[in-house]
Amino acid sequence: MDDAAVIAALRARDERVFAELMRMYNASLLRVALIYVATRSVAEDVVQETWIGVLNGIDRFEGRSSLKTWIFRILTNIAKTRGQREGRTVPFSALERPGAVPEAAVDADRFLPPDHERWPGHWASKPEPWPEERLLAAETRGVVERAIEDLPPAQRAVISLRDVEGWSSEETRNALGVSETNQRVLLHRARSKVRQALEDYLMEAQ
Amino acid sequence: MSATIEQLSCQELVELVTDYLEGALPQGERASFEHHIDGCRGCREYVRQMRQTIELTGSLTPADVGPEAEAALLAAFRDWKPR
């Protein structure tokens, strides 16, 4: 179904389409809400309020952005207000200046020092191939899930949208209201940490 | 391509992997990147692991809100229905 069909169905109060839309976006909405509010239960409230907002606004929606972007904009506004009310300093910098605090993809001690006479900055302990059968084990997926849960909220939201949900970078950027560069910085940090978690897990039992 | 390919260290390369995979590296840097992984087993493995990480992440089932929350929303939808 394209946007126009979905919008028409919502305006016609088609419950099936509404339920389908919720199932499609609820997980992502929750992730994004968690950038702004502290707990999952508040984030769930925010998602609920978002859908009420969607229902109340759908008759006036002019289609100047995609439906998806519009829904996420409603969510972000509600989540920001809610976060402020909770007295939570909204981590704008997490979205607007994620590069402000340096963060290495790989620990510096994995590399030779910058003043090394022959190979400055080269691997001191280089990555070894992962055992294929363990990589594909169900347990390993649990490691990835936990690594994602442990990420700071903005990184978690970006990797969830991009790599779990399979959204394009443009869709992700629009949903979060971040620049392309910042989206990439957040994605890079998130993926790097998940890779590290996998390496720690897969190599320890070797 | 020019012969003056800038030398990247491994430590610099690992910070460029996402830009590389996203197709966001300028041509010169892309050439240095590829030149480096051609000759460096550690970095080649690193890039492979990043791809494996992305693939594995893509095989996860998206999280969901609880069934209660969904039921509450559908109830709200029914209340809202009659304009």
Keywords:
heterodimer; A: 206 residues; mainly alpha; Rna Polymerase Sigma Factor, Chain: A; Arc Repressor Mutant, subunit A; 2 domains; elongated; B: 83 residues
Detailed description of the structure:
The complex is a heterodimer of chains A (206) and B (83). With 206 residues, chain A is mostly helical. Chain A has ten helices and no strands. Chain A has helices at 3-11, 15-36, 40-57, 67-85, 92-96, 132-135, 138-149, 153-164, 169-176, 180-204. In chain A, helix 2 runs antiparallel to helix 8 (153-164) and helix 4 (67-85) runs parallel beside helix 9 (169-176). The relative contact order of chain A is 0.12. Chain B is mostly helical. Chain B has a single domain (10-80), classed as Orthogonal Bundle (Arc Repressor Mutant, subunit A). Chain B has five helices and no strands. The longest helix of chain B has 18 residues, at 41-58. Chain B is elongated and about 65 Å long. The model of chain B has no long low-confidence stretch (mean pLDDT 86).
